[in-house]
Fold this sequence. Notes:
By secondary structure, the chain is mainly alpha-helical.
Amino acid sequence: MSKMAKAPVAEAADGEKKGDRLTRFIEKVRADQESINLFYDGKITRDELHARGVRFVKAL
């Protein structure tokens, strides 16, 4: 039976860990949701929403 070598787990090139990426992703989703809520409340326009990087798509 051959034994497999265990290689050390490498981090990303810029030194960030997976948890950090996940945390940033969750923060972005929350910020996007807050922007969408502001749009539906009439506090920001569709152009401001697009400037924040949030766009609505039509389902097929």
